[in-house]
Specification:
Shape: globular
Protein name: GTP cyclohydrolase-2
CATH topology: Rossmann fold
Number of strands: 7
Distance between the termini: 34 Å
Pfam family, one: GTP_cyclohydro2
Cofactor: Zn(2+)
Strand order of the largest sheet: 1-2-3-5-4-6-7
CATH superfamily: GTP cyclohydrolase II
Enzyme class: hydrolase
Catalytic activity: GTP + 4 H2O = 2,5-diamino-6-hydroxy-4-(5-phosphoribosylamino)-pyrimidine + formate + 2 phosphate + 3 H(+)
Bound molecules: guanosine-5'-triphosphate, zinc ion
Amino acid sequence: MSYSRVTKVAEAKLPTRSGDFRILGFEGELAPDQEPGPQGKRIEEAVALVYGDIASQPSPILRIHSQCLTGDVFHSLRCDCRQQLELALDTIVAHGSGLVIYEEQEGRGIGLMAKLRAYELQDQGLDTIEANVRLGYRSDHRDFSLPAEILRQMGIRSVRLITNNPEKVAALQAHGVQVERLSAEVAPTLNSESYLQVKREKMGHLISSL
Ligand SMILES: Nc1nc2c(ncn2[C@@H]2O[C@H](COP(=O)(O)OP(=O)(O)OP(=O)(O)O)[C@@H](O)[C@H]2O)c(=O)[nH]1
Ligand SMILES: [Zn+2]
């Protein structure tokens, strides 16, 4: 994905349970020659939650987190998103600095309603990838070029990335960012175990504790 402009539109304090962050709002407008993703948006939004003095860090801790309404807001046990977000915030605060880029790629980019339809199919026995394919989507529609551009604008060229997903690492590296991976493994719940198994077996996620 390429953007004709990526703009920081706001910056404010954001005290959280984990600690006192700053929240930066970004808008990325797709370049005219770019087809929008399944959600059809031409302007994509992302926020960066920044803790401490990241500018003095040669390689700040980073989590790129894709929106998951069901997990992040309602603490759904179908997935590990909420636990990973808490892990990231707590790791950053314990370390003294770092950032989370939270992008609106709900359902790995297919959008909330499509993700719920995929959940419906998973309730009937399909796995997370089969459900996407049955609905006419790829397993993952995300493109991490907006977070990469945000990092560039913030002057960050090297990161310690909290993730189990090798494609996220490769995507940032393709944008010229140096990446060291920090594990984002969290304890599986009864409901998330089979989902995590599919992520490991079919999507190559680096998960050892199943
Ligand atoms: N389409 C679809 N999206 C899902 C499903 N479960 C979770 N998601 C979305 O998946 C995204 C998170 O991606 P994950 O594959 O869990 O993890 P990741 O971000 O690739 O990798 P990590 O950095 O290790 O967390 C969020 O946008 C969720 O809304 C599902 O069953 N179907
Ligand atoms: Zn989730």
